[in-house]
Amino acid sequence: MPKLRVKTIMNSAAFCAVVILAVTAWPMNGETFAMLATENANSAAAVAEPVDLGLSVRWADFNLGAVRPEEYGGLYGWGDPTGRKRSTENSDYPSEVPQREISGTEYDIAHVKWGSGWRLPTRAEQQELVDKAVWRKTELHGVAGYSVTGPSGNSIFLPAVGGRVGDRVSYQVDGADYWSGTLSEDPDKAYYLYYYIGEDPTVGTLPRHYGFAVRAVIE
Predict the structure, then answer these.
(1) CA 21, CA 202: separation in Å to the nearest integer?
(2) Which residue among 30, 76, 129, 141 is least enclosed by CB atoms within 10 Å?
(3) Could you give the count of Cα atoms lying within 13 Å of 68 in the half-sphere of its Cβ?
(4) b vs e for 33-62, b when ≥16 Cβ sit within 10 Å of the residue's Cβ?
């Protein structure tokens, strides 16, 4: 999410029994499309299976807050283990001056929610995924995203979940943002992996209060 693109949210958020982060609508080719960024109601009891891509860590087969690879899951602020914060103040994520690496700590939502060795990837582990895996744009059950195939020949699917600022979700179906656990050199920002459909994936930095997806890793 290095820039806010068109197709940003124009309608207000709605909340239901499943935790709906945002319901959006925008015109496209004369029509209106509605998209959801949600946590599956059954995700509290769901823990991913690790996929061995032939890299230094194994990657979860679905996003935190989802139960299937094509589901978006939640969009979480960096360092928010509750997953519920919507503040746009960096000091809430998780403090004014956070530690350099939160992967595997009390501020790591994947570690808190899934336990058993699961954690946020580090910046280096995300960069390894970018550099050593083959990324191919595709759809899984009608959901746009990327198939990511590692040196082992195994693959994971990263859906185009978009990203969030406050309650506003941007460029869903066009791209995706995934947090790492690593603070940037600018302490107001943290590292994340992002892509736009049809473009190469990249690791960059953005403010900690942004809401991004989480694809966890395990040793």
Answers:
(1) 25
(2) 30
(3) 7
(4) eebbbbbbeebeebbbebbebebebbbbbb
Q: By the 8 A CB rule, do 195 and 175 touch?
A: yes
For every residue of 174-209, DSSP letters joined together read TEEEEEEEEE-SSTTEEEEEEEETTS--EEEEEETT
Q: Compute how many other C-beta atoms are within 10 angstroms of the C-beta atom of residue 141.
A: 10
Residues in the chain: 219
Report residue 95 as tokens. 């403090």
Side-by-side strand order, sheet with 175-183: 175-183, 189-196, 202-207
Residue 13, pLDDT score: 32
Strand partners, 195: 176
Query: What's the start-to-end Cα distance of the chain, in Å?
Result: 28
Distance CA 124, CA 207 (A): 19
Q: Which two tokens stand for residue 166?
A: 């406050």
pLDDT < 70 positions in the chain: 1-38, 45
- Containing H/E element for 165? strand 163-165
Rounded-to-integer distance, Cα 64 and Cα 82, Å: 12
pTM of the model: 0.84
28 vs 6, 61, 141, 175, CA distance in Å? Answer: 11, 31, 21, 16
Q: How many CB atoms lie within 10 A of CB 204?
A: 13
